[in-house]
């Protein structure tokens, strides 16, 4: 049996929406009544860390109670036939719980926390982070999340992965949040590309196969198309 083709999948909030995880930004620019910069920026953290901690504590509870959906599971099933690498903008662990074994989290992980000073001091967390909870350096613990106005440390690794793709798929992301949206620019022009979304983003579909439906239905269609092409 020959070497498996490398299938790289960039996922966003749309893949977890069917699991009941609310998408990051509603049309009014608010996130559960909060301006996103209040709860997802260094400025918001400096202004009211207790508010930010409670906001992410609630996200953590919601995600702990959510279950992976058929889209997560369907991508994991494709590991039988392809070398599947997930690059996700999501902070949930639904890809892992769905069975995927190679997942890169661009924007952090809700079940980890870190020192507010030292990014390398990272710890697992399943419950709540409270004001006064400190890392071993004595500084307050904060969510292990990449906020707006912060660099994305794993983007270079993601670019390297995108460059090596034999097939590239985008699922449930509007392709407007950079630098993640720019990954498509690093994918070789000649390889097959697919976009799955309920509303296909404004991209050049001359070189991309659009699958305009939910993530779960779209991954079923993707499985069929990819396996037909392997025959």
Characteristics of this structure?
alpha/beta, 11 strands, Rossmann fold, SIR2/SIRT2 'Small Domain', 231 residues, 2 domains, EC 2.3.1.286, 6-stranded parallel beta sheet
Number of domains: 2
Q: What is the rounded Rg?
A: 18 Å
CATH class designation of the largest domain: Alpha Beta
Order the strands across the largest sheet as they lie in space.
Answer: 5-4-1-9-10-11
- Measured between the Cα atoms of the first and last residue, the distance is 14 Å
CATH topological fold name of the largest domain: Rossmann fold
Quickly give the CATH architecture of the largest domain. Answer: 3-Layer(aba) Sandwich
Looking at the structure, what is the overall shape? elongated
Mean pLDDT: 91
Order of helices and strands: EHEEHHHHEHEEEEHEEEH
CATH superfamily of the largest domain: TPP-binding domain
**Helix share, percent:** 25-40%
Low-pLDDT ranges: 26-30
Largest sheet: 6 strands, parallel
Strand content: 15-25%
The helix-and-strand class reads alpha/beta
**Tally of helical segments:** 8
Count of distinct strands: 11
Subcellular location: Cytoplasm
GO molecular function, one term: NAD+ binding
Catalytic activity: N(6)-acetyl-L-lysyl-[protein] + NAD(+) + H2O = 2''-O-acetyl-ADP-D-ribose + nicotinamide + L-lysyl-[protein]; N(6)-succinyl-L-lysyl-[protein] + NAD(+) + H2O = 2''-O-succinyl-ADP-D-ribose + nicotinamide + L-lysyl-[protein]
Function: NAD-dependent lysine deacetylase and desuccinylase that specifically removes acetyl and succinyl groups on target proteins. Modulates the activities of several proteins which are inactive in their acylated form.
């Amino acid at each position: 049996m020959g070497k498996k083709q490398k299938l790289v999948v960039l996922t966003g909030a749309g893949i977890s929406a069917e699991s009941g995880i609310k998408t990051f930004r509603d049309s009014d620019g608010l996130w559960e009544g909060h301006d996103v910069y209040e709860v997802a920026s260094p400025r918001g953290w400096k202004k009211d860390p207790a508010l930010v901690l409670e906001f992410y504590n609630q996200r953590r509870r919601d995600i702990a109670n959510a279950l992976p959906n058929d889209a997560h599971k369907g991508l994991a099933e494709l590991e039988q036939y392809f070398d599947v690498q997930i690059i996700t903008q999501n902070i949930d662990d639904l890809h892992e719980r769905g069975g995927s074994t190679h997942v890169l989290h661009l924007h952090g992980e809700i079940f980890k926390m870190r020192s507010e000073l030292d990014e390398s001091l990272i710890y697992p967390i399943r419950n709540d982070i409270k004001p006064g909870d400190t890392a071993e350096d004595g500084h307050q613990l904060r969510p292990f999340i990449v906020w707006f106005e912060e660099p994305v440390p794993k983007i270079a690794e993601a670019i390297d992965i995108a460059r090596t793709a034999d097939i590239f798929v985008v699922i449930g992301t509007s392709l407007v949040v950079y630098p993640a949206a720019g990954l498509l620019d690093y994918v070789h022009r000649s390889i097959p590309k697919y976009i799955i979304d309920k509303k296909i983003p404004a991209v050049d579909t001359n070189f991309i196969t659009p699958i305009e439906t939910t993530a779960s239905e779209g991954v079923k269609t993707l499985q069929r198309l990819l396996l037909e092409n392997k025959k």
